[in-house]
Every structure is written in C-alpha cells, then in structure tokens.
Amino acid sequence: MLAESPVVDSAPEAIPDRWVRWVKITTAVQVVFLFFYPGIICGCHFHAIAVPLGIVPVAWGFYPFFCYRTRREHVVGYVNGALSIFWLYFTWNSNIQFAFR
C-alpha cells in the first residue's frame, strides 16, 4: 500500500504587506524630526550635528521609495519620496547652505 501524501497547497504564499508599519514609522520619523531639528539650528551659521539629523528623514524617505514590494508600499514610497525632497529643501535652507558661505 502506498502512503497517502498530505495535501499540499500549491498556491504561492502571499507577500507580506509592510505598508501599515511603514506609515507608522514615517509618521514617527517626520513628527519627531520636525520638532527636534529646529532646536538644533539657529539659522545664522552651519551646525555639523544638524546634518546627520536632517539626513535621517531623507534616508528613511528614500528607503520605502526604492524597496517596495506591493502597490500599497509603493504609494507609501511615493509619499516618502516627496517628504524626502521637502527635507532636502528644509535642511539646505536652514543649515547646509551656511557651510558654503
């Protein structure tokens, strides 16, 4: 007698959707750095510590933009990409431009 083989589901596993977690992380990063970053700068000269603080939201913004797996993650990536461009503009005007004067 042949042993019966268990029924194997041949459907591919669904890709885990990370968009909810990414929205929470994005909200936390944006809110924390939006309130924390202006406390570091004074607007009159270059502050070296403010550069890495300004780069964190930019780095997080481009990570979901380039590492999405599903359509919802792609939408979160577009929003993060737009927020990254805002942060680049914000950090340039508030701090980085003073390094080149």
How does this structure look, described?
By secondary structure, the chain is mostly helical. The chain has one domain (19-100). Helix content is 62%, strand content 0%. The protein has 3 helices and no strands. Helix 1 (19-40) packs parallel to helix 3 (71-94).
Q: Mind telling me the C-alpha Rg?
A: 21 Å
State the share of residues found in helices, binned by percent: 55-70%
Largest sheet: none
The stretches of 5 or more residues where confidence is low (pLDDT under 50) are: none
List keywords for this structure.
single chain; mainly alpha
Q: What's this, in brief?
A:
This protein has helices at residues 19-40, 50-66, 71-94.
What's the arrangement of secondary structure elements?
Elements: H1 19-40, H2 50-66, H3 71-94
Helix pairs in contact: 1-2, 1-3, 2-3
